[in-house]
Amino acid sequence: MDLNRIDILEQLNKIFVELLDNEEIRIDEKTTQNDVEGWDSLIHIHLVVALEKHYKIRFTSKEIQSWTNAGEIINSVLSRLL
Amino acid sequence: MAVLGDTATQFLVQALRGTGFDFGFDLIIFEADFDQIERQVFDTASELYKFNPEVVIIFQSTHKLLNKFNKLEIKQYNTLADNQLKLIDNIYQALIRDLKTKIIFYNYPEVNDSVFGNFANKTDSSFLFQLRKLNYEVMQYASKHTDFYLCDISSIQNQAGKSTMFQPSIYINSEIVLSIDILPYIASRNLELISALYGKFKKCLILDLDNTIWGGIIGDDGIENIEIGNLGIGKAFTEFQYWIKKLKNRGIILAVCSKNKESVAKEPFEKHPEMVLHIDDFAVFMANWENKVHNIRQIQSILNIGFDSMVFLDDNPSERNLVKENIPEIVVPDLPEDPADYLEYLYALNLFEIASISNEDTDRTKQYQLETLRTEIKKSFINEDEFLKSLKMMSLVLPFNKFNAPRVAQLTQRSNQFNLRTIRYTEKEIESISLSKEFYSFSFTLEDKFGDNGLICIIILREMDEINLFIDTWLMSCRVINRGVENFVLNTIGQFAREKGFTNLIGEFIKTGKNEMVKDHYLNLGFKQKDKLWILNVTDLKNKKCFINSKENGFEQN
């Protein structure tokens, strides 16, 4: 795992803590939507917009639907940053 | 309030609630389920009617309208706007039939499907043609229907750009048509409208002069060198002055607050041929070397309106900060450095929201000027009574009718200080009061030798039983304080109550943050306190001293 993935995961965690207003939350690359209480479709939209804003990128609508775990979100971000 | 949308509105509701707090509202919001506008509105057993909101927000999106259009037969393309307007009318009629509510309808931000190119403007079967027609027709509709208001989110899209307003990937995934970034702006525009509906809006614009309404410093540069009209960047100031003039024409009171010698400050208004604003556009002109906080306090005491209804424009950041620190209620926009940017900046702030206008708005400045004149003349009288007598005051007393209803409703919405119970009424409610057997209504005008103040006092009486007549509303415009109007009004309603066979007038004072001035109103008029109410026996009530004569008219209550 290179440093970039760790950074993005860190950022993802920060966003989740803020969105769900829960300091306890810890996600890793394997975390799925089902593992996190409160990660519903609306939080998902917030997450998309927060990542897009932070990294100044835009995801396609397909990507937004396709992620099955946090690792895939990181893949998407990374592919746009390269 | 209730929010009904044909797209997902969760974020919008969140934004409205949050922004509500910034505007001083703790909004209780009923959010209908997704795409339930018709079901909620046309079924009077729905949650909407149980919730019984004061305000209903209807947000039909352009995208759903486009979906509707897409499914039409080719021959029906040109019927979209008319049919949609019919639906809007049905919604409105259903809501006002069973709810006592104001309706806020979001207009349609433009989507051009580019099927016809520019030709879309030339053919009524294009979506763009129908969309623009609908936006226009719904304005016509709003102008003819009370309690139906438009929240202009289309103009927000014009300001922010469609790419900021709308994010396709989010729309495809979620049925959300408003981007998260634009929501604070939409919510603000909506809350500005709600604030105005609830009587919170700006009434007065206070202006600095040098480098604010003209370029340069009149005291240093002289009248021939200030920038206005063709000189230098004078065009920016000319256009700015036209904007200010339009505000004045629609009822905003203008005042000057400038560090200058008065005669020097007035010179451009009197002599410069390219000035748009003139001395008589201003209700108060404060040019001196006192600090601006002091001067603005003076202006406030002359106009007798709250600081929170004032806006102060000054190019100088340190003057602005001084005013902001000392008078936190007043709005002090941070004008951009370049005067060329003034207008665009102020347009976007949308400071001058209003929920209704009446004829009296347009000559308000004149009335405040007359008040200043009266204050001057009063100084020459030693005896207050002599002064009041010299004014030769007349009042026309009329029940509510369809001509005065807009102004009556407006006064109930706006009056905060001299208002015993601060009950707000819409125009429609005022009309129904005028037709009700249970209520008796009175509107009072006041004119004197200087001019006409128009409608200045409202009384609504409600029959409690055969003996007691309750004063539901007693409010008065602060312009006419200290002229003995209270006595004249009491004489009028006392006599009315007696003639109708009532024994008592029952008054009540409901304290708000703003009506401290009338806390002893009923005590001063001789009412006796009983628990929370005030009672006055009218059977052998003597007329109180007053110097106002009744203008003859055919006064008759239903």
Report on this structure.
The complex is a heterodimer of chains A (82) and B (558). By secondary structure, chain A is mainly α. Chain A has a single domain (3-81), classed as Non-ribosomal Peptide Synthetase Peptidyl Carrier Protein, Chain A, CATH 1.10.1200.10. In chain A, 62% of the residues lie in helices and 0% in strands. Chain A has helices at residues 3-20, 41-55, 61-66, 70-81. The longest helix of chain A has 18 residues, at 3-20. The radius of gyration of chain A is 12 Å and the shape is globular. Chain A starts with a helix and ends with a helix. The model of chain A has no long low-confidence stretch (mean pLDDT 90). The longest helix of chain B has 19 residues, at 80-98. Chain B has 23 helices and 18 strands. By secondary structure, chain B is of the alpha/beta class. Chain B has 3 domains: 2-197, 3-Layer(aba) Sandwich (Rossmann fold); 204-349, HAD superfamily/HAD-like (Rossmann fold, 3-Layer(aba) Sandwich), CATH 3.40.50.1000; 378-550, Aminopeptidase. The chains are: A mainly alpha (82), B alpha/beta (558). The A-B interface holds A 41-42, 45-46, 48-49, 58-61, 64-65 and B 10-11, 167-170, 172-174, 176, 179-181.
